[in-house]
Design brief:
With 500 residues, the chain is an alpha+beta fold. 28% of the residues lie in helices and 41% in strands. Among the domains are: 25-112 and 132-157, no CATH class; 169-267, no CATH class; 405-409 and 419-499, no CATH class. It has a 20-stranded antiparallel beta sheet that branches. A hairpin with a 4-residue loop joins β14 and β15. The protein starts with a helix and ends with a strand.
Length: 500
């Protein structure tokens, strides 16, 4: 018995020793295999290529590669390091090993990926990408079915479908790119980012996404056309976007494309300054109640417009501004809404537009009977689909609280009418009371609406329009508003109230 145990231990030690001694040979074989794969893909320079089998790492220094028989995409980098490599056990059980080389659709698992000074250029379409440093942690790409075959990863270059399928199969703890530059050399346009970060990506859902110092330049000009100092997005749903890129792999019920919280701040650049525009911050915060109900609040802060002389819009606006006695507009917006996809409802609970020192405009409305056509229009901005929806409007409230806009507008009108402001006010109020829209029945309700609007002209304050159609006004009847019938007031359930 003792002799058998000793023999078994000796055999294991010999096997381990042989295995240990054979590791350098296996590593050399893998290096030769990877080098050959890179050279077939178009590599013209590889300064150093090293594979550590026990350390589960691959390192490449000084790589230059030109695909497409020397006239295709050019790739260069100074250093790439992949560590913590793994191969799924289910792949081994299926008879697939990593020693055959990596192919499109194969799994890829690594604890850490680092790339320095990456440059990619496509001379055919005159575009280029530069990355000073890329670090990815916790990379886990499951096997997926590529849209195009081929064993060479450069021959099977990823199109939108393959990108979507790879992102559906990807789980990623963190990705950080430092100093990213995208360029179109033919026209001199560039997009640059100081830092780009993604955290917690899992098959189309992402925990955090951030961009620092996004800058767009055009025409080889060093001036910044657009600059956004900071973009921060949290808890996003990107599955619907992947479904758009790859409809074949789409799920039957993908969640809407949205972020639970988003902030864009620090806007500048000649696109704004040359047109007299200003914007400080745009933000949205939301809360979910399952996948169906969602409540959100959006704010626009520090929006403004100051006419710039020498431009058509600027000169026209400057003349109007002088008539109103103002030099610029400053606007803040605050809106809140609730959407319920199971019940088929959307409520804009409030939307306030504060035109500083002039007026505050308020809007709210409710929609019901909303179907797939409406939500597709809502998610993708294809509002032509609204006319095919069976949804309807059940209420609308529009308010105007005057601060100084009414007096300024009446003074401007008085100048054009050649009469004192008070006389112009009385004249306009009288014209409102006498107003008779063509083809609309002049009922007691219509007369009351005109009288209420006239009182607002005379006294200022707040004017509130309300529409409560019964039954709710269907989207498919919107052509009625282009040529309203005599029952306009009753069809829309219109009413107006005035408050000081």
């Amino acid at each position: 018995m003792k002799r058998a145990v000793v023999a078994l231990v000796s055999l294991l030690l010999v096997a381990a020793g042989v295995g240990w001694l054979s590791i350098p040979s296996i590593e050399r074989h893998l290096v030769a295999q990877l080098r050959g794969q890179l050279e077939r893909a178009g590599a013209t320079r590889i300064d150093r290529l090293e594979i550590g089998l026990l350390a589960r790492r691959v390192e490449i220094d000084g790589l230059n590669l030109v695909a497409g028989a020397g006239n295709g995409t050019e790739v260069a980098l100074t250093r790439a390091r992949v560590s913590g490599l793994e191969w799924p056990i289910r792949e081994l059980l299926a008879g697939r090993t990593p020693f055959r080389g990596w192919r499109p659709g194969d799994p890829f698992i690594a604890a850490n990926v680092e790339i320095e000074n990456l440059q990619v250029a496509d001379p055919i379409i005159a575009t280029g990408v530069r990355v000073r440093r890329l670090v990815a942690e916790g990379v886990n790409l499951a096997r997926f079915e590529p849209a195009r075959g081929g064993t060479d990863w450069m021959e099977s270059a990823a199109g939108p479908v393959d990108i979507a399928r790879a992102l559906r199969a990807l789980a990623l703890a963190r990705l950080e790119i430092t100093t990213l530059l995208l360029s179109q050399t033919g026209v001199g346009e560039t997009l640059s980012v100081d830092r780009f970060t993604v955290a917690g990506w899992r098959q189309g859902r992402v925990a955090d996404f951030a961009v620092d110092a996004f800058v767009a330049r055009a025409g080889g000009n060093a001036a910044e056309v657009v600059r956004v100092e900071r973009v921060s997005l949290r808890e996003g749903e990107m599955t619907l976007m992947l479904d758009y890129l790859d409809p074949v792999g789409a799920s039957e019920q993908s969640p809407p494309l949205r972020w639970l919280a988003s902030t864009f701040e620090g806007f500048s650049g000649t696109a704004l300054s040359d047109n007299g525009l200003a914007l400080t911050r745009v933000s949205t915060k939301g809360s979910r109640d399952g996948d169906a109900r969602y409540r959100w609040n959006s704010r626009v802060e520090g929006a403004g417009f100051r006419p710039v002389a020498g431009t058509f819009i600027g000169d026209a606006a400057a003349e109007s501004f002088r008539g109103l006695g103002i030099s610029e507009l400053a606007v803040d917006v605050d809106c809140g809404a609730m959407e319920d996809r199971v019940a088929g409802k959307f409520d804009l609970e409030r939307c306030g537009v504060d035109i500083r020192g002039l007026a505050t405009i308020g809007l709210s409305f409710g929609l019901e009977g909303l179907d797939a056509s409406f939500w597709e229009a809502y998610d993708w901005g294809d509002y032509g689909l609204l006319l095919t929806s069976k949804g309807a409007v059940n209420r609308i409230t529009l308010s105007l609280r005057d601060q100084s806009l009414l007096d300024r507008a009446l003074r401007l009108a008085a100048g054009g009418m050649g009469m004192p402001a008070q006389l112009a006010r009385a004249t306009i109020a009288q014209q409102v009371r006498r107003f008779q829209p063509s083809g609309v029945l002049i009922t007691q309700e219509m007369t009351a609406i005109a009288d209420t609007v006239a009182r607002f002209v005379e006294r200022g304050g707040e004017l509130v329009f309300e529409a409560k159609p019964d039954p709710p006004f269907a989207f498919e009847r919107w052509d009625y508003l282009l040529s309203p019938g005599p029952d306009l007031v009753s069809a829309l359930g219109l009413s107006v109230r005035h408050a000081r």
